[in-house]
Specification:
- The structure is a single chain.
- By secondary structure, the chain is an alpha/beta fold.
- Helix content is about 30%, strand content about 25%.
- α2 packs across α3 and α5 runs parallel beside α6.
- About 45% of the residues are buried.
Amino acid sequence: MHAITIPEPGGPDALVWTEVPDPVPGEGEVLVDVVSSAVNRADVLQRMGFYNPPPGASPYPGLECAGRISAVGPGVVGWAVGDEVCALLAGGGYAEKVAVPAGQLLPVPEGLDLTLAAALPEVTATVWSNVFMVAHLRPAETLLVHGGSSGIGTMAIQLAKAVGARVAVTAGGPEKLARCAELGADILIDYRNQDFVEEVGRATDGAGADVILDIMGAKYLDRNVQTLAVNGRLAIIGLQGGAVGELNLGALLNKRAAVTATSLRGRPLTEKTAIVAAVREHVWPLLADGVVKPIVDRTLSMAEAAEAHRVMESSAHIGKVLLRAPSAA
Protein backbone atom coordinates (compact mmCIF):
# COMPACT_ATOMS: atom_id res chain seq x y z
CA MET A 1 0.00 0.00 0.00
CA HIS A 2 0.94 3.69 0.01
CA ALA A 3 1.07 5.95 3.05
CA ILE A 4 2.28 9.37 4.09
CA THR A 5 5.62 8.90 5.82
CA ILE A 6 7.91 11.33 7.67
CA PRO A 7 11.51 10.36 6.80
CA GLU A 8 12.81 13.41 8.69
CA PRO A 9 10.84 15.85 10.89
CA GLY A 10 10.30 19.29 9.40
CA GLY A 11 7.88 21.50 7.50
CA PRO A 12 4.91 20.35 5.41
CA ASP A 13 7.19 19.04 2.65
CA ALA A 14 8.55 16.49 5.13
CA LEU A 15 5.41 14.47 4.35
CA VAL A 16 6.18 11.87 1.68
CA TRP A 17 3.60 9.66 -0.09
CA THR A 18 5.39 6.37 -0.65
CA GLU A 19 4.98 2.60 -0.77
CA VAL A 20 5.07 0.79 2.60
CA PRO A 21 4.18 -2.71 3.85
CA ASP A 22 0.50 -3.53 4.30
CA PRO A 23 -0.66 -3.67 7.93
CA VAL A 24 -1.96 -6.97 9.29
CA PRO A 25 -4.86 -6.99 11.78
CA GLY A 26 -3.99 -8.61 15.10
CA GLU A 27 -6.13 -10.03 17.86
CA GLY A 28 -9.26 -7.90 18.25
CA GLU A 29 -8.48 -5.75 15.21
CA VAL A 30 -9.91 -5.22 11.74
CA LEU A 31 -8.26 -4.00 8.56
CA VAL A 32 -9.88 -0.94 7.01
CA ASP A 33 -9.44 0.12 3.39
CA VAL A 34 -9.23 3.87 3.88
CA VAL A 35 -11.48 6.12 1.82
CA SER A 36 -10.64 9.32 3.68
CA SER A 37 -8.77 10.66 6.69
CA ALA A 38 -8.72 14.03 8.45
CA VAL A 39 -6.02 16.45 9.53
CA ASN A 40 -5.53 17.29 13.21
CA ARG A 41 -3.11 19.58 15.07
CA ALA A 42 -1.49 16.46 16.51
CA ASP A 43 -0.49 15.44 12.98
CA VAL A 44 1.32 18.74 12.54
CA LEU A 45 3.18 18.22 15.81
CA GLN A 46 4.12 14.68 14.79
CA ARG A 47 5.44 15.95 11.45
CA MET A 48 7.63 18.44 13.33
CA GLY A 49 9.01 15.71 15.59
CA PHE A 50 7.21 16.81 18.77
CA TYR A 51 4.46 14.19 19.16
CA ASN A 52 5.47 10.61 18.45
CA PRO A 53 2.86 7.85 18.25
CA PRO A 54 2.37 5.73 21.37
CA PRO A 55 4.24 2.38 21.50
CA GLY A 56 2.82 -0.17 19.08
CA ALA A 57 0.88 2.36 17.02
CA SER A 58 1.36 2.97 13.31
CA PRO A 59 4.25 5.36 12.61
CA TYR A 60 2.23 7.22 9.98
CA PRO A 61 0.18 10.32 10.90
CA GLY A 62 -3.61 10.34 10.97
CA LEU A 63 -5.83 10.00 14.05
CA GLU A 64 -9.09 9.13 12.29
CA CYS A 65 -10.37 7.65 9.07
CA ALA A 66 -13.39 6.35 7.22
CA GLY A 67 -13.51 3.34 4.94
CA ARG A 68 -14.60 -0.27 4.52
CA ILE A 69 -13.54 -3.32 6.49
CA SER A 70 -11.49 -5.65 4.26
CA ALA A 71 -10.36 -8.22 6.85
CA VAL A 72 -11.34 -9.23 10.38
CA GLY A 73 -8.76 -10.40 12.89
CA PRO A 74 -9.15 -13.10 15.55
CA GLY A 75 -11.59 -12.42 18.36
CA VAL A 76 -13.60 -9.72 16.61
CA VAL A 77 -17.37 -9.92 16.87
CA GLY A 78 -20.04 -7.56 15.58
CA TRP A 79 -18.13 -6.42 12.49
CA ALA A 80 -17.81 -8.01 9.04
CA VAL A 81 -15.94 -7.55 5.78
CA GLY A 82 -17.65 -4.84 3.74
CA ASP A 83 -18.97 -2.83 6.68
CA GLU A 84 -18.61 0.92 6.17
CA VAL A 85 -17.01 2.44 9.25
CA CYS A 86 -15.16 5.39 10.68
CA ALA A 87 -12.51 4.93 13.32
CA LEU A 88 -10.53 6.62 16.06
CA LEU A 89 -6.84 5.87 15.58
CA ALA A 90 -3.56 6.20 17.46
CA GLY A 91 -1.93 6.73 14.04
CA GLY A 92 -1.95 5.48 10.48
CA GLY A 93 -4.89 7.32 8.95
CA TYR A 94 -2.82 8.90 6.17
CA ALA A 95 -2.65 5.61 4.30
CA GLU A 96 -4.56 3.28 2.00
CA LYS A 97 -5.06 0.69 4.76
CA VAL A 98 -4.97 0.74 8.55
CA ALA A 99 -5.41 -1.85 11.31
CA VAL A 100 -7.89 -0.71 13.96
CA PRO A 101 -8.94 -2.15 17.34
CA ALA A 102 -12.59 -3.12 17.01
CA GLY A 103 -13.46 -1.04 20.08
CA GLN A 104 -12.47 2.11 18.22
CA LEU A 105 -14.81 1.53 15.28
CA LEU A 106 -18.06 3.36 14.66
CA PRO A 107 -20.64 2.69 11.95
CA VAL A 108 -21.04 5.45 9.40
CA PRO A 109 -24.05 7.49 10.58
CA GLU A 110 -27.20 6.87 8.61
CA GLY A 111 -27.48 9.14 5.58
CA LEU A 112 -23.90 10.45 5.78
CA ASP A 113 -21.46 10.20 2.88
CA LEU A 114 -18.64 7.79 3.71
CA THR A 115 -15.92 10.31 2.87
CA LEU A 116 -17.34 12.89 5.27
CA ALA A 117 -17.45 10.37 8.11
CA ALA A 118 -13.68 10.80 8.56
CA ALA A 119 -14.44 14.22 10.04
CA LEU A 120 -16.19 12.68 13.05
CA PRO A 121 -14.22 10.26 15.27
CA GLU A 122 -11.59 12.56 16.78
CA VAL A 123 -13.83 15.58 17.33
CA THR A 124 -16.80 13.67 18.70
CA ALA A 125 -14.62 11.60 21.04
CA THR A 126 -12.69 14.65 22.22
CA VAL A 127 -15.73 16.84 22.81
CA TRP A 128 -17.94 14.19 24.38
CA SER A 129 -15.24 12.87 26.70
CA ASN A 130 -14.12 16.31 27.92
CA VAL A 131 -17.24 18.46 27.89
CA PHE A 132 -19.73 15.82 28.99
CA MET A 133 -17.95 12.85 30.59
CA VAL A 134 -15.36 14.92 32.52
CA ALA A 135 -16.79 18.45 32.84
CA HIS A 136 -20.44 17.31 32.98
CA LEU A 137 -21.97 20.19 31.02
CA ARG A 138 -25.67 20.41 31.84
CA PRO A 139 -28.70 22.08 30.21
CA ALA A 140 -28.91 25.85 30.76
CA GLU A 141 -25.21 26.08 31.70
CA THR A 142 -22.77 28.24 29.72
CA LEU A 143 -19.94 26.66 27.75
CA LEU A 144 -17.03 28.78 26.49
CA VAL A 145 -15.24 27.24 23.50
CA HIS A 146 -11.87 28.63 22.46
CA GLY A 147 -11.29 28.19 18.75
CA GLY A 148 -14.98 27.96 17.96
CA SER A 149 -14.48 27.65 14.20
CA SER A 150 -12.08 24.69 14.42
CA GLY A 151 -13.10 21.09 13.95
CA ILE A 152 -13.32 20.63 17.71
CA GLY A 153 -15.06 23.96 18.14
CA THR A 154 -17.75 23.45 15.52
CA MET A 155 -18.63 20.07 17.04
CA ALA A 156 -18.61 21.44 20.60
CA ILE A 157 -21.04 24.20 19.64
CA GLN A 158 -23.49 21.75 18.11
CA LEU A 159 -23.37 19.18 20.89
CA ALA A 160 -23.71 21.79 23.63
CA LYS A 161 -26.72 23.35 21.90
CA ALA A 162 -28.24 19.89 21.42
CA VAL A 163 -28.31 19.38 25.19
CA GLY A 164 -29.71 22.84 25.88
CA ALA A 165 -26.59 24.74 26.95
CA ARG A 166 -25.67 28.32 26.13
CA VAL A 167 -22.48 28.65 24.06
CA ALA A 168 -19.83 31.36 23.95
CA VAL A 169 -16.99 31.14 21.44
CA THR A 170 -13.74 32.87 20.65
CA ALA A 171 -12.58 32.99 17.03
CA GLY A 172 -10.51 35.22 14.78
CA GLY A 173 -12.58 37.55 12.62
CA PRO A 174 -16.19 38.12 11.54
CA GLU A 175 -16.33 35.30 8.97
CA LYS A 176 -15.43 32.64 11.52
CA LEU A 177 -17.73 34.12 14.14
CA ALA A 178 -20.60 34.22 11.64
CA ARG A 179 -20.14 30.52 10.96
CA CYS A 180 -20.16 29.82 14.69
CA ALA A 181 -23.41 31.78 14.96
CA GLU A 182 -24.95 29.67 12.19
CA LEU A 183 -24.15 26.57 14.23
CA GLY A 184 -25.88 28.03 17.27
CA ALA A 185 -23.26 29.98 19.23
CA ASP A 186 -24.91 32.63 21.39
CA ILE A 187 -21.96 34.79 22.49
CA LEU A 188 -19.43 35.72 19.78
CA ILE A 189 -15.99 37.00 20.80
CA ASP A 190 -13.29 38.09 18.36
CA TYR A 191 -10.12 37.31 20.31
CA ARG A 192 -8.16 39.76 18.13
CA ASN A 193 -9.86 42.82 19.54
CA GLN A 194 -12.09 41.71 22.43
CA ASP A 195 -11.30 40.42 25.93
CA PHE A 196 -13.14 37.15 26.50
CA VAL A 197 -13.11 37.66 30.28
CA GLU A 198 -15.04 40.92 29.90
CA GLU A 199 -17.35 39.66 27.16
CA VAL A 200 -18.37 36.47 28.97
CA GLY A 201 -18.84 38.42 32.19
CA ARG A 202 -21.05 40.96 30.44
CA ALA A 203 -23.13 38.29 28.67
CA THR A 204 -23.68 36.28 31.86
CA ASP A 205 -24.31 39.22 34.22
CA GLY A 206 -21.02 38.47 35.93
CA ALA A 207 -21.72 34.79 36.56
CA GLY A 208 -19.09 33.46 34.15
CA ALA A 209 -18.79 30.24 32.17
CA ASP A 210 -19.70 26.95 33.81
CA VAL A 211 -17.43 24.96 31.47
CA ILE A 212 -14.50 26.14 29.34
CA LEU A 213 -13.03 23.98 26.58
CA ASP A 214 -9.50 25.29 26.06
CA ILE A 215 -6.92 24.64 23.35
CA MET A 216 -4.45 27.34 24.39
CA GLY A 217 -3.04 26.12 27.70
CA ALA A 218 -0.64 28.44 29.53
CA LYS A 219 -1.45 31.62 27.60
CA TYR A 220 -5.10 31.55 28.66
CA LEU A 221 -4.78 29.84 32.05
CA ASP A 222 -5.16 32.86 34.33
CA ARG A 223 -7.90 34.49 32.26
CA ASN A 224 -9.78 31.19 31.98
CA VAL A 225 -9.84 30.91 35.78
CA GLN A 226 -11.08 34.50 35.97
CA THR A 227 -13.86 33.60 33.52
CA LEU A 228 -15.05 30.49 35.35
CA ALA A 229 -18.31 30.57 37.25
CA VAL A 230 -18.59 29.32 40.83
CA ASN A 231 -18.26 25.53 40.60
CA GLY A 232 -16.90 25.99 37.07
CA ARG A 233 -14.84 23.40 35.19
CA LEU A 234 -11.89 24.19 32.91
CA ALA A 235 -11.05 21.40 30.47
CA ILE A 236 -7.65 21.86 28.78
CA ILE A 237 -7.13 19.81 25.61
CA GLY A 238 -4.36 21.73 23.83
CA LEU A 239 -1.19 23.70 24.42
CA GLN A 240 -1.10 26.08 21.46
CA GLY A 241 -0.31 28.90 23.90
CA GLY A 242 2.37 27.05 25.85
CA ALA A 243 2.68 24.31 28.45
CA VAL A 244 3.92 26.15 31.55
CA GLY A 245 1.76 28.73 33.28
CA GLU A 246 1.00 30.15 36.72
CA LEU A 247 -2.21 29.02 38.39
CA ASN A 248 -3.88 31.21 41.02
CA LEU A 249 -5.03 28.55 43.46
CA GLY A 250 -6.74 31.18 45.61
CA ALA A 251 -9.03 32.16 42.76
CA LEU A 252 -9.71 28.49 42.08
CA LEU A 253 -10.55 27.85 45.74
CA ASN A 254 -12.84 30.86 45.95
CA LYS A 255 -14.82 29.57 42.99
CA ARG A 256 -14.71 25.93 44.10
CA ALA A 257 -13.63 25.29 40.53
CA ALA A 258 -11.76 22.44 38.82
CA VAL A 259 -9.07 22.25 36.16
CA THR A 260 -8.61 19.08 34.11
CA ALA A 261 -6.21 18.30 31.28
CA THR A 262 -6.57 15.31 28.98
CA SER A 263 -5.24 13.88 25.75
CA LEU A 264 -6.87 11.15 23.70
CA ARG A 265 -4.18 9.54 21.57
CA GLY A 266 -2.17 7.89 24.34
CA ARG A 267 -5.07 6.57 26.41
CA PRO A 268 -5.28 2.80 26.94
CA LEU A 269 -7.58 0.80 24.70
CA THR A 270 -10.10 0.26 27.48
CA GLU A 271 -10.60 4.01 27.94
CA LYS A 272 -10.84 4.67 24.21
CA THR A 273 -13.37 1.85 23.86
CA ALA A 274 -15.51 3.36 26.62
CA ILE A 275 -15.38 6.81 25.03
CA VAL A 276 -16.27 5.46 21.58
CA ALA A 277 -19.17 3.51 23.07
CA ALA A 278 -20.46 6.68 24.76
CA VAL A 279 -20.14 8.62 21.50
CA ARG A 280 -22.10 5.93 19.66
CA GLU A 281 -24.82 6.02 22.30
CA HIS A 282 -25.18 9.77 22.69
CA VAL A 283 -23.84 11.48 19.55
CA TRP A 284 -24.67 9.07 16.74
CA PRO A 285 -28.46 9.49 17.11
CA LEU A 286 -28.00 13.26 16.81
CA LEU A 287 -26.05 12.77 13.59
CA ALA A 288 -28.66 10.40 12.20
CA ASP A 289 -31.41 12.93 12.96
CA GLY A 290 -29.47 15.81 11.40
CA VAL A 291 -29.28 17.74 14.68
CA VAL A 292 -25.47 17.58 14.50
CA LYS A 293 -23.35 17.39 11.35
CA PRO A 294 -19.67 17.32 10.40
CA ILE A 295 -18.31 20.67 9.25
CA VAL A 296 -15.77 20.23 6.45
CA ASP A 297 -13.75 23.12 5.06
CA ARG A 298 -12.20 21.26 2.12
CA THR A 299 -11.13 17.85 0.86
CA LEU A 300 -7.71 17.26 -0.73
CA SER A 301 -6.06 14.13 -2.06
CA MET A 302 -3.90 12.10 0.31
CA ALA A 303 -0.86 12.98 -1.78
CA GLU A 304 -1.62 16.67 -1.06
CA ALA A 305 -1.11 16.20 2.69
CA ALA A 306 1.57 18.91 2.70
CA GLU A 307 -0.93 21.46 1.40
CA ALA A 308 -3.47 20.29 3.97
CA HIS A 309 -0.93 20.93 6.72
CA ARG A 310 -0.27 24.41 5.36
CA VAL A 311 -4.00 25.13 5.57
CA MET A 312 -4.10 23.81 9.14
CA GLU A 313 -1.12 25.90 10.22
CA SER A 314 -2.53 29.05 8.61
CA SER A 315 -5.78 28.64 10.58
CA ALA A 316 -7.62 29.74 7.46
CA HIS A 317 -10.06 26.83 7.62
CA ILE A 318 -13.45 26.47 9.28
CA GLY A 319 -14.15 22.95 10.50
CA LYS A 320 -12.21 19.94 9.30
CA VAL A 321 -9.73 19.42 6.46
CA LEU A 322 -10.06 15.97 4.88
CA LEU A 323 -7.68 13.81 2.86
CA ARG A 324 -9.16 11.53 0.22
CA ALA A 325 -7.42 8.24 -0.54
CA PRO A 326 -6.64 7.40 -4.20
CA SER A 327 -9.23 4.61 -4.17
CA ALA A 328 -11.92 7.20 -3.47
CA ALA A 329 -10.86 9.61 -6.22
